[in-house]
Amino acid sequence: MTADPPLDTSFWLLEVNRATSFLTLQLACSFICCVLTLPAYLGGFDGNFVWNRIGAEYPMGMNVWSLRLLPALCGALCVPLGYLLALELKFSHVSALGAAVLLLLENSLIVQSRFLLLESVLIFFVLLALLSYLRFQNSTSSSWSRYGWLLLCGVSCAAAVGVKYMGLFSYLLLLGVASVDTWNVIGDRAASHLSVCVQCFCRFMCLLVVPALLYIFWFYIHLSVLNHSGPHDQLMSSAFQASLKGGLSRITKGQPLEVAFGSQVTLRSSASHPVPCWLHSHKANYPVRYENGRGSSHQQQVTCYPFKDVNNWWIIKDPNRQDLVVDTPPKPVHHGDVIQLVHGMTSRFLNSHDVAAPMSPHAQEVSGYVDFNVSMPAQNLWRVDITNREAKSEVWKTIVSDVRLVHVNTSAVLKLSGVSLPEWGFRQLEVVAEKAFKVHSSSLGWTVEEHRYGTSQEQKDREVELHSPTHIDVDRKISFWAKFVELQWKMLTLKQEESEHKYSSSPAEWITMKTNIAYWLHTSTNAQIHLIGNLVSWGVAHLSMLAYQLLAVIYLLRRRRGFKDISDGAWEQFVRLGCVCVGSWLVNFVPFLLMEKTIFLYHYLPALCYLHLLTPTLLEHVHTHLLSSPTHRRLLHVCVIGVLLYVFLCFWTFCPLTYGTPELSASQLQRLKWRDSWDILYRRQ
Questions:
Q1: What is the pTM of this model?
Q2: Quick one: which of 11, 485, 493, 22 has its CA closest to 222?
Q3: Hey, which residues does 15 pair with through a beta bridge?
Q4: Element containing residue 403 per DSSP (H, E)
């Protein structure tokens, strides 16, 4: 038995069993924290297996069945949900059965449900939310029992968004439909004021308040369980990291809270792109001339270094004093104070001047000042600007305060440019002073992460002190809300450094199935599993979507001219079908056209499911309202039966690539390569 393909969920299980914090951009992952771990725990998964590569062998005795239970169960339940949805859209049992058959024979949905992947779970909760709302909408009962469906809709929406942020697209569409329904309720003069208020209140609570509370609750459990340091700590703020056990908290425990004149500090950039890093300097100067011919100050390099290092330490100095030690009692640094920053290991002052930065010539160079006895005086005064202050005279605090350092002489702000220096700069990140500081940017902020009160005046003694641990114990905590907001912001805005993947694809390729994904290959035979859709049903689904749009345009034009080809009831059913199926397809497909991240074929599966619902229901609409001739109807019956037969044959043809059995020869695999762009793996004999 070999490890599953994409590692999001598998990696998640590993970190949950270790109770370590992690961040993934694919998942909202809070709800999965509650439901996916249970079968893994019952199956005896101990968290010791590391999913470090696709295809790695599972250890003997590992209960893979329990790990794959939830995705498989949700994938199986999507079939009856499709059947029930067609019925709630007021179509016949025959159309509902057709929708269920198309979902059942979709090879890509089967493959995605068989592994530790989340698309089937997401699709299940999205379909359940839609079914629940339609049940509520169609219910004529005035009893409170109908609001149980509305409550289930809200719970399902929270679960969908808690599985993947993609669920938000369907949730917003459902809110739009519910808003129109609510507006119609408000305009119903036959209903009493009390009835209207009760209905609006119930909709507000079930569709907005309940999902929000549940979503927050998922993350409360998430942050309560995953309270240890993990592999993605560096992506979070220093305050977030310090709240986790076993990570930064081990380093920052015992640090003074208030930064004072004489404090020894490391300054971490608030920007996490391209990588988290610390203000750094070393005994190397800028080149006299750069490769493009521009000159520099030839002063000591100041960079941002993405690793812990003794050269990251700086001393906060009072410009009016020569001492580099903390007074007794300490004199804290406040918002608006002017300071000097002295590099701990080289004693150079942090300096900036009207010299172009090496890689960003529009910004000022930042350096460690070296007096070459030339007409270049030191400009080493910096004003402390605490951006998250609560009072005008806020004290600069370790980890808590987000600070901008404003150059007094030029009003430029110390910032991370994000550009790597050449070989002479050891490939470290460039630090500049940028005058356009009024624009908010995380690259302008700095946080004191490590902090001690300096006591050594002599350089040699100070170097020894910088290598020694601190001993003063100050307790600091970050609230759940602060962690919750930061985690949401990171998941929404953080960009992964993803190279182009072999199986990545564009949304345009999804529609024509020009791409596939190889999930598994046997170590010694040609047995393999691929994410490949049922080409026949895939093509029919997209033709149905185009046919619906064309028919909708014709209907609208003719109704505008006063011709009603179908009754008002049939028109309402047709519009409702478009809102649910075509609307859901759009909100689950169009966002990917705007994304810059690496995307794959499986991202299209939620949108595809709605087209499989559209196909049989649209055919019933055509059969019932547009075909009056028995001959035409019989011809349609024959065509539908023929298409279903081809759908089944296509499903059966690709079964070896769906289930990984039976093993096929190289020539048989070649015959399955229906697209030249597909990557079918085979061993030559």
A1: 0.73
A2: 22
A3: none
A4: strand 403-407
